[in-house]
Amino acid sequence: MPTTYVLPQDKKILRSVWKKNGNKEPWIIKPPASARGIGIKVVHKWCQIPDSSPVIVQKYISNPFLINDTKFDLRLYVLITSINPLRIYLYDNGLVRFASVKYSTELSTLADRYMHLTNYSINKLSSKYKQNEDAHACQGHKWTLKTLWNYLDKELKVDVKNLWQRLIDLIIKTVISGERSITQLSSANLGSRYNSYELFGIDVLFDTDLKPWLLEVNISPSLHSASPLDLAVKAPMVHDLMNIVGFQIPCSKKFTEEQLSKDLNYSNKYLCYDSRLYTRSLSIAEKNKQQNFLRKSRQKYLKNILEDLTPDDVRHLIQYEDELTQLGSFQKIFPTSTSHEYLQYLDGPRYYNFLFDAWETKYQNHREEGKYLF
What we know:
This protein has four domains: 1-60, Dna Ligase, domain 1, CATH 3.30.1490; 64-104 and 124-245, ATP-grasp fold, B domain (D-amino Acid Aminotransferase, Chain A, domain 1, 2-Layer Sandwich), CATH 3.30.470; 247-278, no CATH class; 281-325 and 335-371, no CATH class. Helix content is 38%, strand content 18%. It has 15 helices and twelve strands. It is globular and about 65 Å long. The model has no long low-confidence stretch (mean pLDDT 90).
């Protein structure tokens, strides 16, 4: 991630850095709680920094990887269905947004938003912007991610698989960076594991070495489809997303067997609700098991944590396995048999992450065998 300062609280620190470099390096300013590129600008003079307004000031990546001499970024779609345990899915397609003016490193060009910003909402207003209606074509100022991979592979001989893995690494670390606060808020406010998920739009830029840089993470990314290209990416993505998260119908009322037997249709209406599925309370035995395994090394919990599954363990694992039957074009990137390498970056040990690590390690290649434990 580029060096970033949150103003006004980091203004003194930024000022000291600025004095060392003078007005020779560009910075990008982003206002909070905004969208569609509103308020974003690239600057190189201290007088252009707001005095007291809350903004993000970020080191501008001035050596972007170019295609047709033009800057571009990626919009990746990332679905998180659970924060504890952590479950992350990455859609296999996305959008590639190009600037509409050829790139220049001259400081005199920094005010040209059509050159230095890649937001579609900005560049569609440019007289040089070219629409691309074909999801498979390398033309215009918006491509699909799959089209980009094909271009990089065939035209530039880039190792696209390696590039994809680097993006996965970036995404996992990005999510982990906010895992602590999200876990705390989720624990305090969610009544069920089934009533919360989030689709994020993660924007990434490649530099000249094809190193991926995180630009920003968008909540509620636009699902508006302004062209057949947009529709080709977003429509199947939303379809798969809804299948993964499922549609649960919790009910706060209790019905006696006599009430349900009076009307067969009535019983069918509430057939999918079972209060045991939604409970988050733990028995004393379950609490003791969780506390016990939090103190164990990976070698020890891999050996023993699956030996005596509790009802709570089973509920988590069933929900997870249900999700995996509906992935469509989403790829599971966490948990996997190798994702335990990222657990060291978490704020502290999480029992459910240990449970899922053990599950993936043992049953990744023969999931049906694992399901017999249920």
